[in-house]
Amino acid sequence: MHGRLLSTCEYSEGLRHGSWEQMYGNGAVEKAARYVRGEKIGVHEEWWMDGSPRRRETWERGEKEGPFVFWYPDGTVNMEGTYRAGLREGRFVFRDRQGRIDERQSGLFRKGVKVAELP
């Protein structure tokens, strides 16, 4: 991209280790994450080219652990829920682009299994 920095990352023993960023061609940050010995850790974020949020995920030792939120480009929440030990846990809500809840995908989850519809 004509001398523009598109990513920064750190490696240790051939594995991602430390901060990692990927940029759009215009220089805006697209993704930001942290790794420890190749495994995702902490909050990982992605943004749309205009700078609005796209994804926010929480990881522990390479496994989904904590809140996850995805957005459509207009800022409407696409999905939100929580993971425990890599599995969906509790309330998961999926929405279409108009913000309507997708009842087929949404629900209450326990250890990754849908146990009930949303109240």
User: Which word captures the global form?
Assistant: flat
Radius of gyration over C-alpha positions, nearest whole angstrom: 17 Å
Report the strand count.
12
Chain-averaged pLDDT? 95
* H/E series: EEEEEEEEEEEE
Structural class: mainly beta
Low confidence ranges: none
**Share in helix:** under 10%
Q: In the residues, how many domains can be counted?
A: 2
Q: What is the percentage of strand-forming residues?
A: over 45%
Q: Count of helices? A: 0
Largest sheet: 12 strands, antiparallel
Distance between the termini: 50 Å
Plain-language structure description:
The chain has 119 residues and is an all-beta fold. The chain folds into two domains: 52 residues, no CATH class; 55 residues, no CATH class. The protein is built from no helices and twelve strands. Strands 1, 2, 3, 4, 5, 6, 7, 8, 9, 10, 11 and 12 form a twelve-stranded antiparallel sheet that branches. Strand 1 and strand 2 form a beta hairpin. The radius of gyration is 17 Å and the shape is flat. The model has no long low-confidence stretch (mean pLDDT 95).
Blueprint of the fold:
Blueprint: E1 7-12, E2 15-23, E3 29-36, E4 39-40, E5 42-47, E6 53-60, E7 63-64, E8 66-71, E9 77-84, E10 87-94, E11 107-110, E12 113-116
Antiparallel strand pairs: 1-2, 2-3, 3-4, 3-5, 5-6, 6-7, 6-8, 8-9, 9-10, 10-11, 11-12
Brief descriptors of the model:
119 residues, mainly beta, 2 domains, twelve-stranded antiparallel β-sheet, 12 strands, 0% helix, flat
